[in-house]
Amino acid sequence: MSEKVSRRDFLMESTKAMAVLSVSPLKIDASPSFDLVLRNGTIIDGTGSPGAIADIGISGDRIAAIGSIAAEQARRAVDVRGLHVAPGFIDIHSHSDGSILAYPGAESRVYQGVTTELTGNCGSSAAPISGLRAAEARNTWLADEGIKADWDDVASYLETLDRSKTAINQALLLGQGTLRESAIGMVDRVLSTDEMKQILHSTEEGMDQGAYGLSTGLEYTPGTYTPIEEIVEMSRIVARYGGLYASHTRNEVDRHLEAVHEAIEIGKRAGVRVEVSHLKVCGSRNWHMQRSSIALIEAARASGVDVLADAYPYTAYSTGLDLFLPAWAREGGSPAIVERLRDAKLRAQMRMEAESYILKLEPGGYDLIVISDLRSERNRALVGKNMIEIAGIWKIEPAEALMRLLEEEETGVSYIGHAMSPENVEMVLTSPLVMIGSDGSTMAPTGRAAQTRPHPRSYGCYPRVLTLYCRERRLFDLPTAIRKMTSMPADQIGLADRGRIAAGKKADLVIFSAEGVRDGATFDDPHRYPTGIPHVLVNGVFVIENGVHTGARPGHVLRRG
Question: How far is CA 449 from CA 272, 316, 455, 460, 543, in A?
Answer without folding.
Answer: 37, 20, 12, 16, 21
